[in-house]
């Protein structure tokens, strides 16, 4: 039943993420979850692009391969729910149908925010309660504070570790070797 609630495009990513079940922080694991075929994707990724990911967290999140690499890294740290919540909120903000808004909001709340949620994100009690109150009349901004807290947590905590990770350093080395 849960698979029915996962948007179609996320199911493919979940399948690709299955290869990381052994939680190794290695470059070969990262290539298995690239959005395209690994060799073709790495040929498309320039050293300059991969280096720009270190400029800012938002630059990393806005790049298809940067997002895939960061997701793979979070998977090794057992904290991918933070990124999945942030992405779910980004998708939620694009909802144009008032009829779908409440149902999508409820799904996100139950999956990420509610106490004992299957993929509960680490937010403080006040933010959780504000989000719970926002659910009484869901709007496109009902998750803004929680999403901001999770974004800040990833930016200050996970992102610096990602930039020092074997996944990222191996990826940079691979793009540089291609130029030699």
TrEMBL record:
Subcellular location(s) of the protein: Cell membrane; Cell projection, Dendrite; Nucleus; Perikaryon
One Gene Ontology cellular component annotation held by this UniProt entry: dendrite
Amino-acid biosynthesis listed as a keyword: no
Membrane topology: Peripheral membrane protein
CDD domains: RGS_RGS8
Biological processes per GO annotation: negative regulation of signal transduction
Alphabetized UniProt keyword annotations: Cell membrane, Cell projection, Membrane, Nucleus, Signal transduction inhibitor
Entries under InterPro entries matching the protein: RGS, RGS_RGS8, RGS_sf, RGS_subdom1/3, RGS_subdomain_2
Organism domain of life: Eukaryota
Domain RGS residues, every copy: 56-172
Protein name stated in the entry: Regulator of G-protein signaling 8
Organism, scientific name: Alectura lathami (Australian brush turkey)
Lineage: Eukaryota, Metazoa, Chordata, Craniata, Vertebrata
């Amino acid at each position: 039943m849960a698979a029915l609630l996962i948007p179609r495009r996320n199911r493919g990513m979940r399948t690709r993420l299955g290869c990381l079940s052994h939680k190794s922080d290695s470059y070969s694991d990262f290539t298995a979850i690239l959005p395209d075929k690994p060799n073709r994707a790495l040929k498309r990724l320039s050293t300059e692009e991969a280096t720009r990911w270190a400029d800012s967290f938002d630059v990393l999140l806005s790049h298809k391969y940067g997002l895939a690499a960061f997701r793979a890294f979070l998977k090794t740290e057992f904290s991918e729910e933070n990124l999945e919540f942030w992405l779910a909120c980004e998708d939620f903000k694009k909802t144009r149908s008032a009829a779908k808004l409440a149902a999508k909001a409820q799904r996100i709340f139950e999956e990420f925010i509610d106490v004992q949620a299957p993929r509960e994100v680490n937010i403080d009690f006040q933010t959780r309660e504000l989000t719970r109150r926002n659910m009484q009349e869901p709007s496109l901004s009902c998750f803004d504070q929680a999403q901001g807290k999770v974004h800040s947590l990833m930016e200050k905590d996970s992102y610096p570790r990602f930039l020092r990770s074997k996944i990222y350093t191996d990826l940079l080395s691979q793009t540089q070797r291609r130029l030699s």
